[in-house]
Please model this.
Amino acid sequence: MEKERSPKFSKPNFIQPEGSMVPPATPQGAILDEAPALVDESALKDAEDKKKKSQTPLSESLRRLRHDKRAVVCFTVIVLYILVAVFGPFIYTHIGADYKSDISNTTISSTIYRDFTHQEPDRKHEGPSAQYWLGTDSIGRDLFSRLMQGMLISISVAVIVEIIDIVVGVAVGVLAGYYGGWIDFFLARFTDVMFAFPGILFLILLVGILGPRIDTLSNIPVIGANGNARLVLVSLGLAVTVWPTMARYVRGQTLQLKEQQFIEAARTSGASDLIIILRHLVPNLLSIVIIASTLNIANTIISEAGISLLGLGVQPPGSSIGLMISDATSYMQYHPWEALMPAIVLIIIVLAFSFLGDGLRDAFDPRSKD
Amino acid sequence: MVKFLVKRLLGLIFVIFCVTLITFLIGYYAPGNPIQVMLGDHPNPALEAQLMHSYGLDLPWYQQYWNFIVHLLHFNFGTSYKTINRPVNDIIGESLPISLELGFWALIIQVGIGVPVGIISALKANTWVDTTSMSVSLIIYALPPFVLSILAQLLIIWLDTTFGGSWPNSQWGVPWQYSWMDIQYKLAPILVYGAAGMAYFARLSRTSMLEVLRQDYVRTARAKGLYERVVVYRHAFRNALIPLITIIGLSVGFLVAGAFFIESIFQIPGIANVTLDAVNSLDYPVVQATTVILAIGVVFGNLLSDICYTLVDPRIKAE
Model:
């Protein structure tokens, strides 16, 4: 299948990420490096003879990934996390029994008392129970609902940031690597400044100073409601700070790729620059983009939680894992659970993404292992 | 070498220019008039105009930026909006030593514990010592500093209630003094602050050491019949340090980023905490001053690592 698409020249093998990302290769690896086409072709031929179907490098990598137990576990955890964040709130608010509130002397349904903004003034600091699965916080809000909302927030911010990161990073990186010139110069200077200016400081300045203006957007549904308006700024700020890294990986990879024979062959056969970039360069960047963005998601989740913890991200009626931790810090003496629970959830998801990223790197680039 | 440094210095000046411009523009285009915030609920146009004039806020932006740069070169950061007539230098003078102290000890811990752990792991590669220490450091490295801080505080509170102690879990002692009381205050934040970098150094020095141990000259040294001790410390260790030296300069950046969370959670009145307060109260002169100081710190860290690199490894020259 892969072969039919490009019959004119030997199939490109997946080029490894540039040196800055992986530990230097061993001498044995360097020898293999010098004869990649030979190794690849003979392996391909063998596989064809045996099974009558070719093993693409991608399926090979996925096979390695499936055999990596830690990566599979992490992947499962991430899928569960997303499922809980997306479908959890709806299910959770609809399966509870009605509750007779002593304060207002009315019966309220679970869709109300399990809402993440609803306060029950006489149900403060409770432990887990059938009514509140993870207990309540200092003003009587359901911690499980707040947690799921916070999970949803962290995933949404991660997705938005990653989309911008990949689009801008790949575009600028490929252009800088392929053409060089002023794009390359711009990228290098921009990266210099972004590296000198700590990302978190940039975020704090951006969100802290422009935040009050953004708060006026709070009547827009979804984006603005529940104090989420500042997340727009947080996401944009994070995207601005992370894309140079992606662009640099992509640029390095493009520099290596464009010296390869298959690019030369494509050019000889009359392919335009656009075709070369879209059909031959970008598909070969897949592995490095996947690895870099998976590792980056962990950082994005941490940064969003951190900014909310500093009181600059999600604003009070809303919820975020960072905001939950910050709400709980005043009560750690007698209610450690309220701080510990969101912290543990954050640890789980961050470790899952980090380990999955490591697993992906090992799968796509087996030589990077020590 | 000289050419290389001159080139780096020029790059550095460009970066500092950009940083000051960004800081200035963020403050300039920010919503909310700080003078109005300062006057609070009692609007008084005459007083407002007078204050605007005395802070130089009625000038066009390029003149304000020029003044800002001129003052910067004289280490004069103006006066705070929040506490009227208090020089920003005063505020910086109070908070910077605390942050420097915190960062200094964190760096000591990172290098002092991280490097030996990494070296030992490399020497005992693929034994339980290696796998345990590397797994632990991977986990510590992956965790955000604020989660580590919260866990540390919870641990202190738990120890206090269990054993009836009164170990403090926030605030800071007297800067650069180490009575028993001060140590109690300072130990936890320093350890947490150093932990992430420590894990990073451990992993890096392990990789570096393993790389060196594979080299031919190490094999030669062993073949000559030298003691393993001599091979490890004379031949391997010194060369394994080269990549680490450059990282020390770069870790200033990580320290600055971590400072915001450590200082905020442990309520340490350092420069990062001052920045956060100033951002929340729109106290632009303070924000500009701290931002410029932190950015310059990071830039000089980078420069330092470049210089060390050329000193330690003469093969590296300006590209």
User: Anything to note?
Assistant: Chain A touches chain B through 47 residues (CB under 8 Å).
